[in-house]
């Protein structure tokens, strides 16, 4: 009852105010009315973006040889970014990225694998060309973890009771500093004519550059359970430095 | 239209900056199964033929191992890989690349790895012909490659060609040398290096190579191989083929009296399925460095073992064991007069142990045993002729002895490997001075490895995980220390660790080799083995660049 009374009162006040405004003479305005459209956001420039694509690394370091039959390391690449500064044709967008790849091979008959996660903070400067997209340069410092594994039948069995054919893998896992520098171009393949409309836009983009992860000594150790008293040595596969040129091709969606 | 030069330049730059490298073939070559491990005094050599190298494994403190790779020739001939008797050197014979297609392809070669110190060095002797067998001089001066039994290694092969390597000299145009022995139809089967001999025309003391073929024997002076002499053993009166079965040598020098006037050097030979003993007295020759004077003596049955012995009155004789007669026959080397000595069992093998048990009269003592008859006996030759029954001392051993293993630096000890009907071998440790024989039983077939320092031995089940240590002396003498490994054992080696002056602790380690994958090992402290302190070392043939 009380709610209904309140609604009726508010409605009466609004209608009365509108009637009063309509009755005011136009001649009371000193200047003719000019309507300036509200300035819209250029969402080809200022946007949230999410990228998903493929990254190919050319690694000539001999340390990769036990884990790959090629001097190449493929990864899935994901980046999320947000434009925080836009001035004229230029903008700046930081973000966060994650690359993941795994390579496997045999080394002298032993099955091996190398898994790399790279988490970076891409800092991207963009130069925009309107509906033609933008060119960008990107520096992406971060960290990476490399998990190397070798399966050799002469390694100790992880279980205390020895079993024929049982061998624990020889492993090493380590976090390392990583960084990328690259340049590329992003083109909007599906965009609204109204650049300010808050709607998803699809981009295709490609970049190339140089990536680097700090080198590490691949001294792999037997992966025994904690508390296992047995003594086991490892194997030294030399130094692995994941560095080299890379390319990346991604599709992106922006808002 | 793009300029091709521009494209090539761009590709080259891209390759230089990024990829286009290639994986080393090392990673693609699996370790060959049964590549072979060889025990050296200071470590273990693993032959990694597919990677053209030998990996020397040396022991460190705390049961750690270190590895050191040494290149060897391509296509290692596994059966021709050998170590020197003192364990200081490894000999690796390689067939080379066949057919050679580029100038870089290798010729056959012999690689000699000197591992007498913990920093191994190697020498490679190229040769022109790949021969599948290698004989090593026990004194370490010579190595000879020869064809031996088996199929030819090439389409056409000279079966009588031998390659002589002078290991005291560096490789050169005249080292090694290739030589074809004078053949009367036979092909070399077994090679024996003589000690220094009192050869008539040789300044100093010459050494001979005795080449036993399948029908004859060739005597060759190693310094002058062209002066070889081939002696046919087959009689011209019948067609029976006489195949040599073993040769023994008397240098002419009296080992017990350096001042004695040396006699003529002699060689004695026995043959398969032949009742004769052949003796060769090497006399002077007008045209050659020596000439063999041959005596053929019928000993009444096929001799299974022979030796030069000094019997009563210091007369040199050839002792021949003739199991078919349950006897030994002594052949006077000068007169060819024979004396038959009845034995209590048909012994088939003999070994001189004079230096161990001693002899007041300067005559020899031989240990006799047989793989087909029970027991071991000591035969004192000084009392033999005319008194045979008083010269034999039968030791209280009832098992059949298959093999007698020498114990380094403890000549009075012999390890007798026996075999019984259940095929579970046992063994005995015989002390010739105390006349004791300690039997040790095993649950299964045991493989024995005697430590080079002569202080202990190891028994293990090949292909199994059981291992035991036995000390030869001390308060725990012959008390087995049972051990076990996680992986199947293929071989064990008792090796020295570097001395304190070399950064080590001077101890000893036992390395049990597991020949799987890229070859692993379990390492024990050899002096105080304990599974709690053993270390498993995997992937010895896998390492980074």
- Mean pLDDT of chain B, rounded to whole units? 87
Main-sheet strand order of chain B equals 25-26-27-28-29-30-31
CATH class of the domain at 44-150 and 169-216 and 238-254 in chain A: Mainly Beta
DSSP helix count of chain B? 2
SSE pattern of chain A, N- to C-terminal: HEEEEEEEEEEEEE
What is the helix content of chain A?
under 10%
Average of the residue pLDDT scores of chain A: 85
The number of helical elements of chain A comes to 1
Query: What's the shape of chain B?
Result: globular
- The overall strand count of chain B is 39
In the CATH hierarchy, the architecture of the domain at 44-150 and 169-216 and 238-254 in chain A is Beta Barrel
Shape category of chain A: elongated
Give the oligomeric state.
Answer: heterodimer
Question: How would you portray this structure in words?
Answer:
The complex is a heterodimer of chains A (255) and B (545). Helices cover 9% and strands 55% of the residues of chain A. Chain A has 255 residues and is mostly beta strands. In chain A, strands 1, 2, 3, 4, 5, 6, 7, 8, 9, 10, 12 and 13 form a 12-stranded antiparallel sheet that branches. In chain A, a hairpin with a 2-residue loop joins strand 4 and strand 5 (110-120). The longest helix of chain A is centred in the N-terminal third of the chain and has 22 residues, at 2-23. The two termini of chain A are 45 Å apart. Residues 1-29 of chain A have low confidence and may be disordered. Chain B has a domain at 191-298. In chain B, 3% of the residues lie in helices and 43% in strands. At the A-B interface, strand 4, strand 11, strand 12 and strand 13 of A face strand 39 of B.
Task: Give a topology summary.
The complex is a heterodimer of chains A (about 260) and B (about 550).
Chain A: H1 2-23, E1 48-58, E2 72-82, E3 85-87, E4 90-107, E5 110-120, E6 123-128, E7 134-151, E8 170-190, E9 201-213, E10 216-222, E11 231-232, E12 235-240, E13 243-254
Antiparallel strand pairs in A: 1-2, 1-13, 2-4, 3-4, 4-5, 4-6, 5-7, 6-7, 7-8, 8-9, 8-10, 9-13, 10-12
Chain B: H1 4-17, E1 37-40, E2 43-48, E3 53-59, E4 65-71, E5 82-83, E6 89-94, E7 109-114, E8 121-126, E9 133-136, E10 142-146, E11 161-166, E12 177-180, E13 188-193, E14 208-213, E15 216-221, E16 224-232, E17 243-250, E18 266-272, E19 276-283, E20 291-298, E21 305-310, E22 316-322, E23 327-332, E24 338-342, E25 349-352, H2 354-357, E26 365-369, E27 374-380, E28 392-406, E29 413-418, E30 427-431, E31 436-440, E32 447-450, E33 456-460, E34 466-471, E35 481-484, E36 491-496, E37 508-514, E38 520-525, E39 535-537
Antiparallel strand pairs in B: 1-2, 2-3, 3-4, 5-6, 6-7, 7-8, 9-10, 10-11, 11-12, 13-14, 14-15, 15-16, 17-18, 18-19, 19-20, 21-22, 22-23, 23-24, 25-26, 26-27, 27-28, 28-29, 29-30, 30-31, 32-33, 33-34, 34-35, 36-37, 37-38, 38-39
């Amino acid at each position: 009852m009380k709610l209904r009374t309140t609604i009726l009162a508010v409605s009466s006040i609004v209608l009365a105010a509108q009637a009063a405004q309509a009755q005011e003479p136009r001649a009371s305005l000193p200047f003719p009315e000019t309507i300036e459209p509200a300035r819209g956001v250029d969402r080809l420039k200022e946007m949230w973006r999410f990228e998903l694509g493929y990254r190919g690394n050319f690694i000539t370091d001999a340390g990769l040889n036990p884990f790959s039959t090629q001097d190449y390391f493929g990864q899935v690449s994901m980046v999320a970014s947000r434009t925080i500064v836009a001035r004229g044709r230029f903008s700046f967008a930081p973000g966060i990225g994650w690359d993941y790849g795994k390579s496997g091979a045999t080394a002298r008959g032993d099955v091996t694998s190398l898994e790399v996660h790279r988490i970076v903070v891409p800092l991207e400067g963009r130069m925009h060309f309107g509906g033609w997209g933008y060119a960008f340069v990107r520096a992406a410092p971060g960290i990476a973890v490399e998990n190397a594994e070798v399966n050799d039948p002469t390694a100790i069995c992880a279980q205390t009771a020895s079993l024929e054919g049982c061998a624990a893998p020889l492993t090493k896992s380590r976090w390392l500093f990583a960084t990328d520098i690259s340049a590329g171009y992003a083109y909007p393949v599906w965009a609204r004519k109204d650049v300010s409309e808050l709607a998803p836009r699809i981009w295709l983009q490609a970049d190339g550059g140089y990536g680097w992860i700090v080198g590490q000594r691949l001294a792999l150790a037997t992966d025994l359970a904690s508390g296992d008293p047995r003594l086991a040595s490892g194997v030294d596969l030399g130094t692995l430095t994941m560095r080299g040129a890379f390319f990346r091709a991604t599709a992106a969606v922006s808002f | 239209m793009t300029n091709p030069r521009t494209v090539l330049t761009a590709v080259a730059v891209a390759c230089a900056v990024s990829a286009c490298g290639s994986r080393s073939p090392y990673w693609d070559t699996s370790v060959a199964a049964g590549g072979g491990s060889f025990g050296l005094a200071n470590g273990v050599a693993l032959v990694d033929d597919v990677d053209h190298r030998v990996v020397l494994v040396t022991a460190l403190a705390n049961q750690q191992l270190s590895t050191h790779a040494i290149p060897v020739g391509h296509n290692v001939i596994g059966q021709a890989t050998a170590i020197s008797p003192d364990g200081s050197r490894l000999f690796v014979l390689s067939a080379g690349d066949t057919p050679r297609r580029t100038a870089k392809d290798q010729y056959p070669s012999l690689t000699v790895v000197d591992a007498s110190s913990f920093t191994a060095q190697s020498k490679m002797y190229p040769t022109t012909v790949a021969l599948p067998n290698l004989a090593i001089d026990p004194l370490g001066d010579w190595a000879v490659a020869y064809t031996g039994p088996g199929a030819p290694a090439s389409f056409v092969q000279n079966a009588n060609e031998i390659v002589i390597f002078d290991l005291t000299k560096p490789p050169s145009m005249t080292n090694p040398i290739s030589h074809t022995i004078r053949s009367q139809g036979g092909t070399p089967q077994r090679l024996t290096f003589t000690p220094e001999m009192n050869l008539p025309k040789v300044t100093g003391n010459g050494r001979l190579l005795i080449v036993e073929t399948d029908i004859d024997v060739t005597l060759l002076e190693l310094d002058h191989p062209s002066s070889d002499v081939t002696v046919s053993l087959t009689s011209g009166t019948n067609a029976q083929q006489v195949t040599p079965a073993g040769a023994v040598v008397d240098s002419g020098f009296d080992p017990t009296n350096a001042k004695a006037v040396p006699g003529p050097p002699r060689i004695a030979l026995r043959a398969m399925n032949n009742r004769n003993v052949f003796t060769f007295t090497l006399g002077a020759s007008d045209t050659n460095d020596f000439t063999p004077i041959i005596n053929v003596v019928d000993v009444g049955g096929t001799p299974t073992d022979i030796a030069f012995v000094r019997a009563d009155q210091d007369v040199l004789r050839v002792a021949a064991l003739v199991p078919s007669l349950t006897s030994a026959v002594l052949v006077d080397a000068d007169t060819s007069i024979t004396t038959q000595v009845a034995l209590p069992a048909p012994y088939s093998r003999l070994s001189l142990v004079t230096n161990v048990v001693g002899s007041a009269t300067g005559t020899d003592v031989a240990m006799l045993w047989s793989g087909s008859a029970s027991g071991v006996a000591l035969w004192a030759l000084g009392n033999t002729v005319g008194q045979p029954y008083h010269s034999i001392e039968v030791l209280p051993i009832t098992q059949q002895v298959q093999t007698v293993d020498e114990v380094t630096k403890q000549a009075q000890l012999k390890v007798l490997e026996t075999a019984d009907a259940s095929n579970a071998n046992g063994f005995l440790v015989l002390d010739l001075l105390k006349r004791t024989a300690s039997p040790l039983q095993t649950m299964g077939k045991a493989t024995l490895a005697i430590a080079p320092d002569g202080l202990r031995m190891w028994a293990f089940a090949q292909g199994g995980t059981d291992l035991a240590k036995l000390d030869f002396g001390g308060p725990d003498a012959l008390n087995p220390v049972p051990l076990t490994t996680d992986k199947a054992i293929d071989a064990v080696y008792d090796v020295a660790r570097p001395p304190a002056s070399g950064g080590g602790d001077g101890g000893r380690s036992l390395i049990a080799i597991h020949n799987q994958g890229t070859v692993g090992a379990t390492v024990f402290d050899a002096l105080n083995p304990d599974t709690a302190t053993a270390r498993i070392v995997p992937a010895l043939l896998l390492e980074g660049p």
